[in-house]
Amino acid sequence: MNLGLEGRVALVMGASRGIGKAIAAALAGEGAQVAIASRSQEKLGEAVVEIGETATPFVADTSDLDRLAGLPAEVEAALGPVEILILNSGGPPFGGGLDHELGDWETAYRSLVLAPRVLAGAVLPGMRERGWGRIVNVGSTSTREPIPGLNLSNAHRMAAVGFLKTLSREVAADGITVNTVATGRFGTERLADAGGSLQNAEEAAKREIPAARLGLPEEYGDLVAFLCSERAAYITGTVIPIDGGLLHSAF
User: Fold this and answer.
1) First to last CA, the chain
2) Which of 6, 91, 158, 177 has fewest C-beta within 10 Å?
3) Helix or strand run (H / E) with residue 23
């Protein structure tokens, strides 16, 4: 299937490892020019080696809103205007409803809500002018069913979905789609931290996930590549789970 991504310029946040790197690799595999962003220059260098020569590294932290505001222009100067934006950030600390200080809430809000707002605000004028664009938010199944011990993620990822749903209706007629992927359990460092080890997470998956396994980051990348494609032009304003059947709700 030709996804129509040859030569498109994509900016992928949090792309030095895990799901972000898998998304960048999938887009690069479809011929896109991929700007990969992360706060770690060393890990970015390793990711470029893995993804290939179509990946260009940019050091940026999602908590630094001033840096994010200028990042798309920097990508444009190097590769061309950003046509695909992947909103991805490392998850906030684990904890229950009252386990965090207000400063932790503010930090999570900057990373999970304000960062998407700043980045979308920077790329959308150009997307609207050109009549084409794709924005995909790496979210969580917690937006459907809150996850115990992940209060900061539960609260702020719901806020991001509300913002992006509003935005999707405003830009759909301009040829721009805006979607969120509700992430289940994937074999990443973040999940290993949550479960004590990746082996523990894999054993729990056998018991708790209908598919009886963890998801592969490459499977995630393939879904996002499709959502960014010409073929997915009529899919917008959605929250799409990729969870091996973990969610109990049908909607």
Assistant:
1) 28
2) 6
3) helix 18-29
CA distance 51 to 43: 12
Phi-psi region of 57 (alpha: psi -120 to 50; beta: other; left: phi over 0): beta
The type of residue at 250 is A
C-alpha closest to that of 72 among 153, 20, 4, 12: 12
Q: How far apart are CA 248 and CA 251, in angstroms?
A: 9
- How many whole angstroms from its chain centre is CA 17? 12
pLDDT at 196: 80
User: According to the model, what pLDDT value does residue 192 have?
Assistant: 80
Give the pLDDT of residue 229: 98
| Digit-coded pLDDT (tens) for 163-204 | 999 999 999 999 999 999 999 999 888 888 777 899 999 999
Contact 30/5 with Cβ under 8 angstroms? Answer: yes
What's the CA gap between 29 and 23, in Å, rounded? Answer: 10
